[in-house]
Amino acid sequence: MRAALRENHGERFSGVVHAQRKGLAWRRRGSLRSRRIAWRCVRACSAGPDRRLGVAPHTHRLVVEHATGLLEVVVRGPWGALALVELRDAVLRFARLPVA
Prior knowledge:
Elements: E1 2-7, E2 12-19, E3 23-28, E4 35-38, E5 42-49, E6 59-66, E7 69-76, H1 78-94
Antiparallel strand pairs: 1-2, 1-7, 2-3, 3-4, 5-6, 6-7
């Protein structure tokens, strides 16, 4: 899915993120190289509406905490929210994390 990504509270960039059999992968838009983390490195995953001050309405955020830092995925709109929930469910299922 295409979204705005941010690694370790750094600069936000446009990219693609998807769940694969071996782990979670993401890459910058237009880049051929992708970053990947194995499912055993994922520690926590949470998703929900982004209600921070100054954020546009209908914005949803997924935060994945892994062994080397954080990955934040931000999407807008109802279809983006649906895709984000599907991605969260895939992360929870593949990483064998408890459903909160």
